[in-house]
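Researcher: Here's a chain I'd like modeled. Treat it as a single chain, no partners, no ligands.
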Amino acid sequence: MYNGTNTEWLRNRAPRYSVAAQALPVASARESTREIVLPVVQWIALLPSWTLLAMIVLATTAVCATVIVKARSEFQSSSIQRDRVVSEIDSLRRANGALELEIRRLTNDSNTIELAARERLGMVMPSDIVVPVESISSASSLRTVSFVR
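Model: Modeled as a single isolated chain. Structure tokens:
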């Protein structure tokens, strides 16, 4: 049965591996790291300090330029979207104003009310003469023409 505090299996783990795996020297990893890092450090030491400074300044400039270009492109796309929304709002306001004007006319002006009743609802006055006219395009649909006295 396993107990959470039992760490005996950690101590007995090493003998399970083969002798070849246990015989690998630990220093070989350090030596290989030295073989790679030491020539690089020596090569960097041969470079003049102004070269290192120029590379750092160049990399910093490249990063800053990238950030600036990205910010400008986002700003331009946001400006275009804002202009589109503003023009849409203006057209909706004009349409809203026209509808408000039509509502005022339909509620207050008797001539507009009569015209709307004739055109939209097909109503006629009792004194009007209605003449049905057959449509040229289809014989089944009839139109009416009213003559006002």
